[in-house]
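Shipment paperwork, digital attachment
Item: protein structure file
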Amino acid sequence: MKTILLQLDTDPQPSVFDRVVAVDAGVDQLFVHGGVTVDNVEPLVHGLMFTRGGENLKNSAIFIGGSQVAAGEALLKKVKQTFFGPVRVSVLMDSNGSNTTAAAAVLSARRHLALKGCRATVLAATGPVGQRAAQILASEGAHVHVGSRGLDRATQACEAIAREVPGAQLTPMAAGTVEEVRQACHGASLVIAAGAAGIELLPESVRRELKDLKVAIDLNAVPPAGIGGIAVHEKGVDHAGVLCYGAIGVGGLKMKIHKAAVQKLFTANDQVLDTAAIYQLGLALV
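Attachment content:
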């Protein structure tokens, strides 16, 4: 039986990127809908889950995407509420590439550092990728400085992560000025910058002051770099003892995880691939 992936995109124009990945992952039939909301998604899900039954349900699955992660999360919640009992299909949520990118960033760092007990700083940690990277690091036992321009937003992010990761070691940090960034990164062996495109979060001069820093990962692909002095293509390049990754340097692993997650959807009909599940999948790939 052919595999069918129902791509539910919260944007008016569905992502071409996500469609290409689905095709490259081997999906037989791709059904794509844009402008999907919690108010109009139910009949789309019903159309997928009521046309096949039993063992055949695993050959149908849902991908939730779009540029707005909060909208994607709301859509995931509604989709799960639409299922009942065994009548359901597997679903992958990766709006704005948030889960696969965060997983790839942490896995890149894991190649060089023992994450349990390490001190890590995530800059722009209240954004969709940053918060997920902080969550994954906390799940690995790292002590995470959660940096944001506002301390209140950093505190809210810590509270959200703590609900997902009991016992998480988190410290909210204001990181809006250069001096605040310096303090947020002090003592860290790992820094991940997950800010908006074209914004430098950690100047090169400050990065060079961080004596404990071992790995620096910048997830911004648009100049200027989020971490000064890191080129977008760099993958584990040594800068005076600090192993550095740029966005494209992390991107190869992100793509590998994305494709594997789509393929995994069709191994059972009851999976929900979210932040933790996608990271666990990534662990098996590296």
